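tool=predict chain=A
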Amino acid sequence: MRIAVASDHAGFTMKEDIKNYLFELGHDVEDCGAYSGEKSADYPDWGIKAAETVASGKADRGILVCGTGVGMSITANKVKGVYAALCADEFTARLSREHNAANVLALGGRTTGADLARGIVKAWLGSEPEGGRHLARRQKIADYESRAEKIVQEE
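tool=predict ok
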């Protein structure tokens, strides 16, 4: 699987650890930045780059890290075709895939320990979207997105 990763300065160390973990698991990784934790890096710059990589199909999924994960999740969710979930435990990570088909995972570099982050990543990567009622709920979101896009185009 090809996975886009990105961070700001606060998430840089965790991003690097996750990147190495992904390599250990046999995945291809597209590092979308930041490339240092030493100087300030704005999460929208790197989060948008990684989210667009996923939305374009150049990566199958994405993993984003900032201080809390909140900024990255908000940023990624602005990109059409991206469904980002901020996860702080393995259970939520698994359900974000099974129920919500999240294609981007957001993590907090200052709020989540390295071992837990690896567990979250493993649970998230090992889960697939379920059908049934979950598919119907996801379709409601897709229907809304289509209606909202038409309204914007008509304005």
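Residues 133-154 form the longest helix (22 residues). Residues 66 and 103 are 17 Å apart (CA to CA).
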